[in-house]
From TrEMBL, chains A, B:
Provenance organism: Paenibacillus cisolokensis
Main location: other
Keywords, in A-Z order: Signal
Keyword field contains Transmembrane: no
Residue ranges of domain Periplasmic binding protein in the record: 50-292
Protein name in the entry: Sugar ABC transporter substrate-binding protein
Cleavable signal peptide: none
Length: 339, 339
């Protein structure tokens, strides 16, 4: 009799404890007593989001990938990185189509070419896979958002920085990469701003630096040979700035020109530090990755503007998230090495 | 036999307790079995974010407030709404300063005036309170982001829609509200696009509709009296479009002009439906509220771009989240009544 009472008490204890465990689980599962959702924005580790780049090994993508990973860690989802190793649209289309075939939870793509990828991007939409573009967009592709620099505005900022350093007078040249949309927009913003705001400045040449240091150095040397009186350069791309910088190092002062570069790779930062490049524009690369994943997560989970599914309705996601630019000079260059 | 049962019960108790310890440890470490954080983006119900408007009773803010609330529900935080009841900068400054004194987790403000609020906005920064602007910005205010329409681009879209309907030829007028930054930008985008892309179109007047239907109707009637040959109007604001529409209703065809309105209040939608207004531009209002709160949450919780704390560093949040615009005509007007 006593033993069975003891057993009953033990049993009751165990039961109470199990009840407590169950309760504890409930309390932490994301519902409060009022039945309101309160578990936050959280996904499933089975949910995989893929980032697709080109020239996938360059350092430029590192902070972008870090932002994508950091967002995934916060949201408890998985990520994968794929990309064309070369600067080759055909290779990037192949990689993108392989990724679509795996039906991931969402895809973030940086477009090597503003038109050639549109068909492949359309396939993601048909397969119901959320897709956003980052860094370099593709107009009319049907992607649900573009997360990156306002490249037109970046060109305008470069024009104003160059004009300020030249007191609004002189001749300048641009070295760019004309087949990529972001570079076209930077050039256009630069040209329009010079034309509109600085009547004392004129652009004597816009050359193709082919995205490499060597071709850009050669282009810069050729331009200086044709226009020895030139006062400044704007490079819409990191290698362009370093190429111009190498050409400038050969010229002796006072022949040296003002150089505005782009991005914050080590080569560019070293030249900002030693004064070969006067200023460079840093992009919000970590934010490109972070906010791309956040956008894809919202599309995947349907946390979007009401009625967006319907034809003719509004944009489900903000169609453009401007990650900003920062002017980097000798004054703040040290801050950009660590990143 | 009974002793072994007792042993079994003891064993069960011990096991339960170990289970508890394991569970407790895991759940409170913010790590899942793989050592990754997995609790998602989630706040605390004690955390209160405040939205500050002006003309706080108008319907326009409803979807914006709904987006702010929906984001709060997802993130498990609280919201509050404050605002100047009138169209009065002094009243809005007073309200904003009262909100700052309460030290909320974050503040989203729509600026009635692009300069007058800057000092009060600066006080939030000094008090360490994250602040973003939405709908109508304030340049140079130091707010960490602007979430809203690219108003310059909206003006360009209106110009192209009007030009398309006039086959690129004729004279047009604008009715706007020149003291608010978003309206200035819409007017500028409209003017620049006409000047750049449509040499056959000219703008004969830009008038102040004072944000009311009555003043806008009067302005439209006066303009038509001075320019009876006028071909079209662009209103940068909802009441402006309705005012022009009322003036047009008095004119008999073929004297009626093409009218491009703004926003999707019931008055405007009814006039789009009956053909008095030819097209209106819908803004991503729900997204303004939703993404404002998401931005504030990221600032409050320090989930921002690395090194953003340091002077001269990059933008912690994307400095501009473009919530997009949609062209609303008779074809899709029904979709916008429900929202």
């Amino acid at each position: 009799m006593k033993k069975s009472l003891l057993l009953f008490v033990y049993g009751l204890l165990t039961l109470s404890f199990l009840l407590f465990l169950w309760q504890y689980g409930i309390r932490n599962s994301g519902e409060d007593g009022l039945g309101k959702p309160s578990d936050g924005l959280v996904g499933d580790v089975e949910e995989q989001y893929v980032m697709v780049t080109f020239q996938s090994n360059i350092d430029y993508w590192r902070p972008v990938m870090k932002g994508f990973e950091d967002a995934a860690a916060k949201l408890n989802v998985a990520v994968d990185f794929r990309g064309a190793t070369q600067y080759d649209p055909i290779e990037q289309i192949t990689v993108l189509e392989q990724v679509i075939a795996r039906k991931p939870a969402g895809i973030a793509v940086t477009a090597i070419d503003p038109e050639k990828l549109n068909e492949a991007i359309g396939k993601a939409a048909k397969a119901g896979i959320p897709l956003v573009l980052f860094d370099s967009g593709a107009e009319g592709s049907g992607a649900q958002s573009f997360v990156g620099t306002d490249n037109y505005r970046a060109g305008a900022v470069a024009a104003r920085e160059l004009a300020r350093r030249l007191s609004g007078r002189g001749t300048v040249a641009v070295i760019t990469q004309p087949n990529q949309l972001n570079h076209r927009q930077r050039t256009e913003g630069f040209q329009d701003t010079i034309a509109k705001e600085f009547p004392g400045l004129s652009i004597v040449e816009v050359a193709d630096g082919k995205g490499t240091i060597d071709a850009s150095r050669q282009a810069a040397e050729d331009i200086v040979a044709r226009h020895p009186e030139l006062d400044g350069f704007f490079a819409t791309q990191a290698n362009g700035g370093v190429g111009i910088g190498q050409a400038m190092k050969k010229l002796k002062l006072p022949s040296r020109k003002i150089v505005i570069g782009f991005d914050t790779d080590k080569g560019t930062l070293d030249m900002v530090k030693d004064g070969t490049i006067d200023a460079t524009l840093a992009q919000g690369t970590w934010n490109m990755g972070y906010w791309s994943l956040l956008g894809l997560f919202h599309l995947r989970h349907g946390i979007v503007q009401p009625s967006s599914e319907e034809k003719g309705g509004v944009h489900p996601l903000p169609p453009f998230i401007d990650t900003g630019i920062t002017n980097v000079t000798q004054d703040n260059v040290e801050l950009f090495y660590a990143r």
